[in-house]
Structures are given as C-alpha cells and as structure tokens.
Amino acid sequence: MVYVFGGNGFVGSFLANKLAELDYEVTCCDLQDSLNARILNAVKYQKCDIRDISQIRQIRFQEHDFIVNLAANQYHLKVPRNRHKFFFDTNVIGAENILKAAFEKGVSRGVFFSSDMVYGLPLYLPVDTKHPQNPIGPYGLSKKQCERICRDYRKKGMKITIFRPRMINGPGRLGILKKLFFCVQKGIPVPTIGNGKNHYQMISVFDCVSAIIQAIEKDFPNKEYNLGSELSPDITTLLKDTIREAGSHSPIIHLPGNITKKMLTIFDKIGMTVMYPEQFMIADQEYMLDIADTQKDLDWTPQYNDSDMLVEAYQNFSERGK
Predict the structure, then answer these.
(1) For residue 159, which phi and psi values (nearest 5 degrees)?
(2) Is the pLDDT of residue 321 over 80?
(3) Which of 106, 197, 244, 295 could, after both became Cys, cross-link 63 (CB 3.0–4.6 A)?
(4) Which fold has domain 2-169+203-229+290-300?
C-alpha cells in the first residue's frame, strides 16, 4: 500500500491517480471529510490530521507499505500572522508524526517533498543540493527542519528520498500567479521586480509525479534531489510569451529591485502583504537549480518547459472565469 499524505492536494491528487493507473494500491490521507472528486475510485481514503499523532497511529501500516508526504502549509493558502506556528505545526510536527507512527509499524521507505526555499538567496549557480541552507523565512525554515528529521530517521534504518522542487505549476494551481493573470486578462501593465533578464525556474506537477514514481522504482534513494525545468527563458521572454498567447496587450513594467523589495517589506510588516519575503526577495535573482543528479540517479528528465506551463496555467485561469 502507498499512503499519500496530502493526497487530496494539488500534487497528491495527480500522484494518486498515476499510482492507481500503475496498479499500486493507494490510500490518500488528508484533512477533508472525503476523497477529492478528481481522484479515481480505485483510490482509498482516510481522513487524518497529521498534527495529531494519535490519528496517524490509527492507520493500519504494514511493513511492506511505503509513504509519500506531500502534506504542507504553503504560501498559496491563507497565511495567518503567526507564520512560524502555521508552517511548523504541519511541516515539521506533522512530518515527524508521520515518520514516528510509520516507523513504529515497521515501515522503512518513503518520499518527502521539501522545497528550494531551504537554500535562500543563491550563492552560486546552478544551485546544487550541497548549496548552504539559509532560508529567508519560516516556510523555508520549516522545510529545513523537516529534512533534518528525515535524516534522523535514515540513521534509524529508513530509506527516504527528499525532493526540493522549484515553484510547482500545472492545471488548477494558481497561487501568486492569479495576480499576474488578472493583469494579463484585463490588459493592464504587468509589473516585474528587477530588469526581467533573470531566470525564474518552475517545475510541472506532471514532472513532480514522474520523479516520485522513479524514486519508488529505484527503491527510494537516500538522497536529496532538486526538481526544476530545463532551458528556462528569462522572465521578460516568459511573460511576453504568455501575454501573446493570451491575446493581451499588457505592457511589462520593470520595477527597481531594491526599492520595490523595501516597499514590499514595509507593507508586509504593517499587515498589508502583497507578496511574502520568501517570494519577493528572490524575484529579481538569477536562480536555477542543478537537476543533474536527479536526471542521472533516477533516469528522469522534465518534460515541460516554463513557457508551456505558464500558458497552460493562464488558460486554466481564463476558463475558470467563464
């Protein structure tokens, strides 16, 4: 049995369906009362709040089972003022509860999703998995702590593959892109932080799913892996492609990076958050993850490029508004 925590979520629902199509027995574990309607009927469901270990202990794990943890509080959700508690309760305590309860039942294999935000501002390029971990804010800190816990359980004998994806994109995921797409749809100026010559790598949900499948097929390598697209265009080109495909005439406005980030910091501190520091502090940075180890070890290659992902996401946004 594959237990997918956060299985009702964005990546989780695509993963559950793909695993079921590959004839794996799958149980999704999540907070909602029932299984996401997008998920195939062959998938089982167990309501479970990972912040409460007693609920996880009710799961009937068997030694040959394995776990995939995608459950996380992220910035596309409504983030309360107490960000540290919001992120750490789920991303750290919840993850540790999953590992503890599964380990008690003899489960020894798993995949955990972390984030590129564990790195903070890039000190060199491309950013490989050995890059120092200097998270900018509480989300990145929570993922760094989650990784530490995973490594503790590796020492106990578990095999745990950790993925660090860039911003995950695909049909149904909008998040911060909603503001961008609103501007494009209305034909109003699209602002960018910085000169737009930098690259801001993304990763498709479908490529995330294929990487997880490969990790399972490779028997859960005890390593950290980056997930990102290949041959990303610079931000200006990326935006122009999306605006053109949308049939819009939105002009692109390049805002000075330092001044804009200072203003966004002030807005955030007074409770008028437009973007979170972990988002805007790297918005004008050249930022590309090194995915060579992921490709080599897992026989994996991303199939989707950033332009295709953004155009598809805009089309999905536009169709939702009809």
Answers:
(1) -110, 115
(2) no
(3) 106
(4) Rossmann fold (3.40.50)
